[in-house]
Amino acid sequence: MLGKLFLLFTIVPLIDLLVLIPLGQEIGLIPTILLVVVTAMVGSWLGAREGRQAWKRIQEDLANARLPGDSVLDGLAVAMACALLVTPGVITDAFGLILLIPASRGPIKRFARSKFTNMLQNPDVTVIDLNQRATRWQNDDVIDITPESSENPRGTLDAH
To answer: In angstroms, rounded to a whole number, what is the distance separating the alpha carbons of residues 139 and 42?
Structure first.
């Protein structure tokens, strides 16, 4: 997970920089800076508006005794969009604007829902022992044992 985050926070800004430099050479420094600032401002405004709507839908779902699954996914998409839009760069801005369009969230929400369902159906627990390397436990690695009976009640020490 940390490796993926490292790649996300290093590769994406580098790609954005590789796009911004030629763009700045083509249209000029000031227009490029204005483009980045204006998209961040417009994205912040749209994000706040869409975020309020998602929050309102969550509250309505809860008030009507419905689980707000779809509304929560909308809220997560809006939060991701805002994070992408305030990050300087043309590529991140494009993905952020796409996430703010409600119609474009359908495939993203289906993907997220399938990932969450998979995580719930196939839990993956990491067990870490300070003296050993991390190991992974999967559902199919169950070891069934029969405990030994003890004459001592639970919580007492054996007398030697």
So the answer is: 47
C-alpha 38/C-alpha 6 separation (Å) is 28
pLDDT digits (tens, 9 = 90+) for 128-157: 666 666 556 566 666 777 767 666 655 555
74: closest CA among 116, 121, 43, 110?
110
CA distance linking residue 23 with residue 116, whole number of Å: 38
Q: Is the Cβ–Cβ distance between 44 and 93 less than 8 Å?
A: no
Residue 105 amino acid letter: R
pTM exceeds 0.85 for this model: no
- Kindly list the distances between the CA atom of residue 150 and the CA atoms of 144, 155, 156, 157, in Å, as whole numbers in the listed order: 19, 11, 10, 11
* Pairwise CA distance, residues 112 & 42, whole Å: 26
